[in-house]
TrEMBL record:
<dbReference type="Pfam" id="PF10013">
    <property type="entry name" value="DUF2256"/>
</dbReference>
<dbReference type="InterPro" id="IPR017136">
    <property type="entry name" value="UCP037205"/>
</dbReference>
<protein>
    <submittedName>
        <fullName>DUF2256 domain-containing protein</fullName>
    </submittedName>
</protein>
Length: 48
């Protein structure tokens, strides 16, 4: 078991916040761009 601090992380293309690796993204981590489904759906909108 790895500690959360040891997991790879990225910055979300939608909200700009950092997010950590998840088991469900194991196979396609290189193509993951958004931290959540909500950010993926709202990718064209800029929040204030």
């Amino acid at each position: 078991m790895r500690k959360k601090a040891e997991l790879p992380s990225k910055t979300c293309a939608g909200c700009g916040l950092p997010f950590a690796w998840r088991k469900k993204w194991e196979r396609d981590w290189d193509s993951v761009r958004y931290c959540s489904e909500r950010c993926r759906r709202n990718k064209g909108r800029v929040e204030a």
